[in-house]
Amino acid sequence: MPGVKYDKIYKELRRRIEEEEYGFQELLPSEKVLTEQFGSSRNTVRRAIGQLAAEGCVQSIHGKGVRVIYQRENQAEFVLGGIESLKEAARRIHMDYTTKVICFTELSVDEKISKRTSFPVGASIYYLQRVRYVGGEALIIDHNYLLKEVARGLTPEIAEKSIYEYLEKELGQTIMTTRRKMTVEKNSQLDEKYMDLKGYNCVAVVTSHTYNAEGVMFEFTQSRHRADHFAFYDQAQRVHA
């Protein structure tokens, strides 16, 4: 399938860029070279490069090629325009991470949960609380609400590895779109109990609604991050007339 091919090329090129096989300000190999390397069409290679450009990793230079503009940051780094799990983000920036599930239950959505998450009243969901350790420190607490009919068979053991990997590889789900809101809030009792807050009295909060290929909202998540280890990156281009 062309989609699978594109995804593999994108991930491999991203790996090469992040591991500095293609260094900052260097040009990528030509489309001709890449199509030969991957045994794919030029359109498939262009789609992979387009994804890298959208994430701020490369920039096309007219008449010259595609230049690497990615630079590694020291803080925990997440891409605002993309959808990735913590496992994928940690692997990408070469940081050790572990996850501990501190709550796992099944619920029927009531009016209060529906107002909070946008799931319909009566829907069956999984509710999880997960503490995320990055570099040995408890930096993030995730509150995950997942539609049971989409994430069927989810267990705490799976959630401590990667929910998205399970959904995609085991259940054949395609994760398509996410809508995020970022705010700053005072610490909750749960934050203070489980996170290494280092004296900070507030956390960065990312609230997201995520949809699959059928347009079904299957996940609502609130991720609470320690302030000094939080950074979200976006990329924009100025439109010239």
Automatic annotation (TrEMBL):
The keyword Transcription regulation applies. GO terms for biological process: negative regulation of DNA-templated transcription. Gene3D superfamilies: Chorismate lyase-like, Winged helix-like DNA-binding domain superfamily/Winged helix DNA-binding domain. PROSITE patterns: HTH_GNTR (PS50949). One of its GO terms (molecular function) is DNA binding. Residues 3-71 form the HTH gntR-type domain. Keywords: DNA-binding, Transcription, Transcription regulation. It comes from the Bacteria. InterPro entries: Bact_HTH_transcr_reg, Chorismate_lyase_/UTRA_dom_sf, TreR, Tscrpt_reg_HTH_GntR, UTRA, WH-like_DNA-bd_sf, WH_DNA-bd_sf. This is Trehalose operon repressor. It comes from Candidatus Egerieimonas intestinavium. The lineage of its organism: Bacteria, Bacillati, Bacillota, Clostridia, Lachnospirales. The gene is treR.
